[in-house]
Each structure stands twice: as structure tokens, then as C-alpha cells.
């Protein structure tokens, strides 16, 4: 059974971590509902951060989107590049999206690039 936990070591929490991803990004993917930014890290695992601004809607809508994105990561860890920090930025109007649509969108976008592990310089 695959590991579907989401421990704190796999999360980006601090503003400096999000800014580092933007500064050292090696990929920026635009999809219909998301912007995905990735940068290599010095770890053997993936870390993700999720951003949902007020353009998404009220707190209920933003929290739903963040819950869905966490679940997409949790259930599809092998699709995410190992040794990278990935930031998922929600675009506006995601009120009608389902988990399966979002999971398909994220896995297709991440599968569209060859992920090489380059040493990060920070």
C-alpha cells in the first residue's frame, strides 16, 4: 500500500520557502485552474505549498480548494517530482471543479516535463 500520509516535513509553510521556490524555479506550468511552480531542493522528498488568494472567493471556497489540492498530492505522490519544492497556486473560479478533474489536471501538467535534479544554490 503506498504511503498516503502528508507529514509536516513535506510542507512548505514559511514565506521564505515560497519565495525561494519562485527565485530558483526550474519550471512554471500554467493550467486552466492552477499555476505550478517548482524548484529543486536539497532533500530526497517533495515538499508542496498551496496558495489560494481571495480571488478564489471567501474562506470556505479557499479552504475547499486547499483541501482538494492537499488530497491530490497525498494520493498522487509518485506524480510529483522527487527532490523538488512545488507550489500550487490556485487561479480564480474553481467553485465547480471536482477532485478527479483537479487530479487529472495536476498529474498531466507534472507529467509533461522531464524532471532533472539540479543542485539548488541557496
Structure in words:
With 122 residues, the protein is α+β, with helices and mostly antiparallel strands. The protein has one domain: 2-Layer Sandwich (Ribosomal Protein S5, domain 2), CATH 3.30.230.10. It is 32% helix and 19% strand. The protein is built from 3 helices and 4 strands. It has helices at residues 15-23, 59-75, 99-111, and strands at residues 27-30, 34-40, 47-51, 84-90. The chain has a 4-stranded mixed sheet, sandwiched between helices. The longest helix has 17 residues, at 59-75. The chain is globular, with a radius of gyration of 14 Å.
Give the helix/strand layout.
Elements: H1 15-23, E1 27-30, E2 34-40, E3 47-51, H2 59-75, E4 84-90, H3 99-111
Parallel strand pairs: 3-4
Antiparallel strand pairs: 1-2, 2-4
Helix pairs in contact: 2-3
List descriptors.
single chain, 122 residues, alpha+beta, Ribosomal Protein S5, domain 2, four-stranded mixed β-sheet, 32% helix, globular
Amino acid at each position: 500500500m503506498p504511503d498516503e500520509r502528508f507529514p509536516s516535513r513535506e510542507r512548505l509553510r514559511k514565506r521564505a520557502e515560497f519565495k525561494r521556490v519562485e527565485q530558483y524555479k526550474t519550471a512554471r506550468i500554467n493550467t486552466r485552474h492552477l499555476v505550478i511552480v517548482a524548484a529543486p531542493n536539497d532533500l530526497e522528498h517533495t515538499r508542496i505549498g498551496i496558495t489560494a488568494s481571495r480571488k478564489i472567493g471567501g474562506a470556505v471556497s479557499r479552504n475547499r480548494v486547499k483541501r482538494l489540492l492537499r488530497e491530490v498530492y497525498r494520493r498522487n505522490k509518485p506524480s510529483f517530482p522527487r527532490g523538488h519544492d512545488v507550489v500550487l497556486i490556485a487561479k480564480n473560479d474553481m467553485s465547480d471543479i471536482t477532485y478527479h478533474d483537479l487530479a487529472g489536471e495536476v498529474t498531466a501538467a507534472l507529467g509533461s516535463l522531464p524532471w532533472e535534479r539540479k543542485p539548488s544554490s541557496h
